Amino acid sequence: MTNCEYDSALRAEGFSLLCGVDEAGRGPLAGPVFAAAVIFEEGRVPEGLNDSKKLTERKREQLFDVICETALSYSIASASVEEIERLNILQATFLAMTRAVEGLSVKPTLTLIDGNRIPPALTVPARYLIKGDALSASIGAASVLAKVSRDRYLLELDKQYPEYAFAKHKGYGTALHYECLRAHGPCPEHRMSFLKNMH
């Protein structure tokens, strides 16, 4: 079953306005967590959609514009480092996802959440879908929007804090990132709760 077939099967059940939701940035040591929500009309799904992690950066950038132009409605949201620290990363991810759904110009008849849990504050019908970014075209599109938006944010951070090489590792816990942290200490965009186990 292709990711378009999965969504089509749900539309056949009567869920005409199907919304896919995914996040990017749960694991990094720095920066916000992003989420996106996407609704396509049937037959207007861009080709080449897949889990954003399986696409090249160039392909994601190309798809970003195509998704935004093709979608019936889309929304991108985030939860800040401060919110991640105050709430914990899971709750901050739920917050970003909820904000993304609430930002849609059209109310979905069903929302598909990538993963194994549904954000508790959602006020629309929702189901979770494990490995949804590879199974659902709507979730695949959301994964691209969230990932590209977060990467772009980190590129801006790189200009603000060039000593951390954010453009190279996008905030993830690479050897280079830890090297920069040891040399310069954390900046305001670092998630302090994630740095407890610094090696």
Proportion of beta-strand residues? 15-25%
Q: What quaternary form is this?
A: single chain
CATH superfamily: Ribonuclease H-like superfamily/Ribonuclease H
Instruction: Tell me about the largest β-sheet.
Output: 5 strands, mixed
Can you identify the CATH class? Alpha Beta
The rough form would be described as globular
User: What Rg, in angstroms, do the CA atoms define?
Assistant: 17 Å
SS class? alpha/beta
Question: What is the CATH architecture assignment?
Answer: 2-Layer Sandwich
What are the secondary-structure elements, in order, as H or E? HEEHEHHEEHHHH
Low-confidence stretches: none
Mean residue pLDDT? 93
State the strand order across the main sheet: 3-2-1-4-5
Counted up, domains total 1
Span between termini: 43 Å
Quick take:
By secondary structure, this protein is an alpha/beta fold.
